[in-house]
C-alpha cells in the first residue's frame, strides 16, 4: 500500500563547506529522511562522501539517514556505513557484486535494506529478493550527479513496482531519485511512489528557502 509521502533531501546539493548546518537546517525545515549519496568515481563518474562524513553528520539530525551507495564493490563498506549511523542502506544490483549477499549483510547489521534500479535496470532483478527488501529506489536519472532532468520512462516502472509491492503484502518504501521537482513530483506520486529524493528542489535558494521548498514540494506531491 502506498504510504504517506516522505521527502528526502539529497545533501549532494547542499553546501559541503557546512554540511552539519545544512543537515540541521533541512531537518528543522520539515524533511523526513536525509538522503546521502555515496559515490566512488568507479561505479559512477563522481566522488562524494565516505563513512567518516556520515559519522560527523549523525549528531546533527534525528531523522532517518537514507544512505545510497553508488560504489562497487559495495559489500566491503556496508558495515562501516552501518556503524557510522545509516538507517537505510541502499545498493545497486550491479555493484554488490552479489545482491542477495549485500541485502543479507545489511539486514544482519540491523539496518533497513534498499535496492536502487538504474534507468536501464529491469525490475525483475528483484524477483528473488523481495523478502529482504525495505525500500526500492527508482533512479529517474543516471546515477552520478544532482541537477539532471527527470527521465519519463521512470513512470511506468514506478507503476509496475507499486503493483509488485502491493502484491507482496509487505511494507516497502517506493522511492524516486533524480530530477524530482514541483512538476515531476505529482507524476511520480500518481504512479505510486511514496518517498521523494529531492536535491536541487530542496536546497535551491539557501537555508531561508528550505522550509518553503519542502512545503511546496509536499503540496505539489499531495495534489497528485
Ligand atoms: C544521483 C543521486 C541523486 C541526486 C538527486 O546519482 O543519487 O540523489 O543527488 O539530485 P536532484 O534532486 O538534484 O536530481
Ligand atoms: Zn541518491
Q: What is the total domain count? A: 1
Low-confidence regions:
none
Q: What is the gyration radius calculated from CA atoms? A: 16 Å
Number of strands: 8
Shape, principal axes of CA atoms: globular
Mean of all residue-level pLDDT scores: 98
Based on the structure given, which CATH architecture is correct?
Alpha-Beta Barrel
CATH class equals Alpha Beta
Biggest sheet descriptor: 8 strands, parallel
Q: What's the CATH superfamily, by name?
A: Aldolase class I
Which structural traits does this protein have?
8 strands, binds D-xylitol-5-phosphate, TIM Barrel, 224 residues, 19% strand, alpha/beta, binds zinc ion, globular, single chain
Topology, please?
Elements: E1 6-9, H1 19-28, E2 33-39, H2 51-57, E3 64-70, H3 75-84, E4 88-91, H4 99-108, E5 112-117, E6 135-139, H5 154-168, E7 173-177, H6 184-191, E8 195-198, H7 200-203, H8 207-222
Parallel strand pairs: 1-8, 2-3, 3-4, 4-5, 5-6, 6-7, 7-8
Helix pairs in contact: 2-3, 3-4, 6-8
The structure holds D-xylitol-5-phosphate (DX5) and zinc ion (ZN).
Zinc ion (ZN) is lined by residues 10, 35, 37, 68, 177, 197.
Amino acid at each position: 500500500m502506498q504510504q504517506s509521502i516522505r521527502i528526502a533531501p539529497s545533501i549532494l546539493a547542499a553546501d559541503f563547506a557546512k554540511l552539519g548546518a545544512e543537515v540541521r537546517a533541512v531537518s528543522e525545515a520539515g524533511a523526513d529522511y536525509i538522503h546521502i549519496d555515496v559515490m566512488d568515481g568507479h561505479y559512477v563518474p563522481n566522488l562524494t562522501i565516505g563513512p567518516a562524513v556520515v559519522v560527523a553528520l549523525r549528531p546533527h539530525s534525528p531523522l532517518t539517514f537514507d544512505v545510497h551507495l553508488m560504489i562497487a564493490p559495495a559489500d566491503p563498506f556496508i558495515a562501516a556505513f552501518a556503524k557510522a549511523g545509516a538507517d537505510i542502506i541502499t545498493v545497486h544490483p550491479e555493484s554488490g557484486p552479489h545482491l542477495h549477499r549485500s541485502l543479507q549483510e545489511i539486514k544482519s547489521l540491523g539496518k533497513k535494506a534498499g535496492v536502487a534500479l538504474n534507468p536501464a535496470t529491469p525490475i525483475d532483478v528483484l524477483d528473488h529478493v523481495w523478502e529482504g527488501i525495505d525500500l526500492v529506489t527508482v533512479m529517474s536519472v543516471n546515477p552520478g550527479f544532482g541537477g539532471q532532468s527527470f527521465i519519463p520512462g521512470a513512470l511506468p516502472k514506478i507503476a509496475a513496482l507499486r503493483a509488485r509491492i502491493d502484491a507482496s503484502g509487505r511494507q516497502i518504501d517506493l522511492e524516486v531519485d533524480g530530477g524530482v521537482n514541483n512538476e515531476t513530483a505529482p507524476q511520480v506520486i500518481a504512479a505510486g511512489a511514496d518517498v521523494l529524493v529531492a536535491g536541487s528542489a530542496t536546497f535551491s535558494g539557501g537555508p531561508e528557502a528550505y522550509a518553503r521548498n519542502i512545503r511546496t514540494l509536499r503540496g505539489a506531491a499531495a495534489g497528485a
